## 1
Amino acid sequence: MKITSSLLTPNKSKANALFIGVFSDGKLNTIAKEADQLLNKQITVRIKAKDFSGKTAETLTLFADSGQRIILIGLGDNNKCTLGTIQDATTKAVKAVASTPVKTVSNYIPSLAFMDFDSATVAKISAIAASHAAYRYEVTKNFKKDDKYGLTSMAMYADKKAANNIKQAAAIATGVETTRALGNLPPNICNPDYLAKQARSIAKKYDNCSLTILDEKKMTKLKMNSLLAVGRGSRNESKMIVLKYTGAKKTQKPHVLVGKGITFDTGGISLKPGANMDEMKYDMCGAATVFGTFVAVAEMQLPINLIMIVPAVENMPDGDAYRPGDVVTSYSGKTIEVLNTDAEGRMILCDALTYAQEYKPQVLIDLATLTGACVVALGHVASAVMSKQEQLPQDILNAGIQVNDKAWQLPLWDEYQKQIDTTFADMQNVGGFAGGSITAGCFLSRFCDDVNWAHIDIAGTAWNNKKEGATGRPVAMMVQYLINESVK
Ligand code: BES
Ligand code: MN
Ligand code: ZN
């Protein structure tokens, strides 16, 4: 869906549908009044008749003489309106036109005067939400020929001041779509080689990009034994994907994002139970998030230098698979005792994080569907941020608040570190039941001593359930973070 900005009022709009927001006080703003004229006062009539009351997420479709659909959207009490309310209302409105012939929309939600938000913020949030709601997975499913689902464009009602926000929203929406598309693909399509090919096509499509791919031969030479151990059970060759974007002077230190790219996680020899194992196709959502973030940044040509690193590996049981009890020497030289082959994310990330530091990053952030414990701790609402730094996690959390893509911090205090000490190596790859997300973060922290690093566990936020699929989170938070960095 193309997202643009426009100042055409309802009179002038040629769109198939118009989104008109109404608060529960029932008062119409100038835009709604104009729409009311087009509807021969049907809005006033319906509100008077209590057919529509402006309650949150209430919608009503009316038809103008022109044949245009006017979608009334309730936003509830202005004093209680949050960014979440705006997201939900926009989602409802898009769903109201989803299985209709509507292709183009004028979205007038940003014309409302909100208590807490300026119209540029509302426009941004609503645009991202609209694109999200308009998405449908289509790759491996046959649709009927007459199923003409899908909006093609949305014009946000926004002035010049908001236009930049709309551009950012459009880039974020493209990024989110990229992430969802990759995340939702089945694991027999989306394997390490497929991810490498996607990186190649991104490098071709956008200016100022370059790509390096390390294959197993190269990684063997470099002694990335921890990553390679995980991939040993798979017929699919492991890859390390390194995609660079140079939007600032070459001398400016890069932001480096590392994404866990386990294209399928069976658990390996420590095999997972069968129920819901299919969901482990989403175990590359950290990778998908950095792909999406990268695309958004390249789309905006942000004035920063960005490097995305994706260790892409499949975790399978096999006669040659790594086993519990194995001790491997990581790329850093530190040794790891494998106590559970299902704690494979940290095994590939540690080598990728060590490698990432060769680029002398000003900021290093990894994103990973790392622990089931994270879902227990924060549910599906917030991503977990962990860091030994003061400022970096705050900056990430604040970016999340700006775009309503929430995160919450968990501590990485030294007291937790002893849970991964062992007699037989420098560390073991599991820390036991207590604080499972934190001890996973502790493991990674041992490879990130002298760098401005944060870890984000997205196990609870990257996908929803079987029906909804990949959410594209936390692309919005990450892109907003980088936008903020670019104007620092
Ligand atoms: N990919 C999983 C984490 C996961 C599980 C995310 C379920 C979302 C839902 C990860 O590789 C894993 O298996 N982690 C183990 C770690 C344990 C063995 C210490 C886990 O969380 O059970
Ligand atoms: Mn696992
Ligand atoms: Zn995993």
## 2
Amino acid sequence: MKLSDNKATMSFANGAPSIELPIYHGNIGPDVIDIRKLYAQTGMFTYDPGFLSTASCQSAITYIDGDKGELLHRGYPIEQLATQCDYLDTCYLLLNGDLPNATERNDFHKLVINHTMVNEQMQFFLRGFRRDAHPMAVLTGLVGALSAFYHDSTDINNPEHRRIAAIRLIAKMPTLVAMAYKYGMGQPYMYPRNELSYAGNFLRMMFGTPCEDYKVNPVIEKAMDRIFILHADHEQNASTSTVRLCGSSGTNPFAAIAAGVACLWGPAHGGANEACLNMLEEIQANGGVAKVGQFMEQVKDKNSGVKLMGFGHRVYKNYDPRAKLMQETCNEVLAALGLENDPLFKLAKQLEKIALEDDYFVQRKLYPNVDFYSGIVQRAIGIPVSLFTGIFALARTVGWIAQLNEMLADPEYKIGRPRQLFSGNVKRDIKPIDQR
Ligand code: CMC
């Protein structure tokens, strides 16, 4: 951390002595005021529910400039990664700090592709779930269960173990997601095929059957890979912070990632793509484009509790750069599949147009986020809506494990233990039951 010459002085209206707090420079982005000694010096905590102004860690992985609408992984803009690299290159970058050269690339691709199978016992574990269970419920269980299968890579203090756990997770997530899907469908699981690309292999495990060869459509393969790249990491979002907090106790790495899966499920986070598609389908069922205006009135009415899913972001107060790239992919996929006139896509365009022009959205700087388009693309590919967040989890796994491993290697890391502003009863005595 680079100490700044600048310092913050905190003074108090009640005459208590003021204190000086050190400030650290970020390489880019806001500086931070170091409040670690605040409690010792003043007996006070800071209060910041939702972490609106709190940096919970230092990280060198991902940087977002929400006002510019910029996303950088290890310094590389997401636009360049999405157009010049593939998902596994991005994984290598996130884990190792730089893009691979040709040999490293080849070795890394081989390494991941050769660890795609899961322990055969996993399918018996899967059988314990109801067939209609939500895929995210199943995935939370399956990822957690990995901790019971891979005992040889769980010493979090051993960098080699951390590296192996990362490779296993990246390699096995597509297999687990596809298994969860096949189980729900009542179809046989498809074993991975190592000659296929990461995305191609996933598509085959999802949509292939043992009855005939599955031919990977290159447009869909590219789209799938782009969905993976665009969701790979997003600095200290809710699920990543969950993984860090969970991992800070020294827990099993697979268990920490399972916590991330659980957090991602919520509709304010990874569940937004599912919620967005459900919203579009509901508007479509209630009259389609003709009813968009009415729906938007509901969105703007605070008492309705209705939100325009796939819009707004805690950090981006400008166009989400991932949304632009996803929109491009969306057009490509719909054209390749002859779905340009898809009514849901038209509806989405209409909603986007109104929202980008409407004062309510303009004033609040609400733009489409990546989930607005990723749902449409996934639906066109044939992925069921309930599996969208599972795909997000698959892609985000690398971000989670890269951030977890970064934390574990950081000499400054401590168990995460937030404090609170207590607003409950002060100390009191229990009264005999007839006096309560
Ligand atoms: N529709 C209508 N109004 C909205 C929306 C929306 N989607 N998002 C924010 N607002 C309003 C909100 O009501 C508030 O209005 P006011 O100032 O009048 O009270 C203002 O905009 C600021 O919103 P906020 O709730 O304070 O913002 P936040 O940073 O706490 O929430 C968010 C961010 C993403 C949870 C929220 O925008 C939202 O719920 N969006 C819909 C769900 C969604 O698409 N989530 C995916 C996020 S991207 C993928 C990921 O990273 O997981």
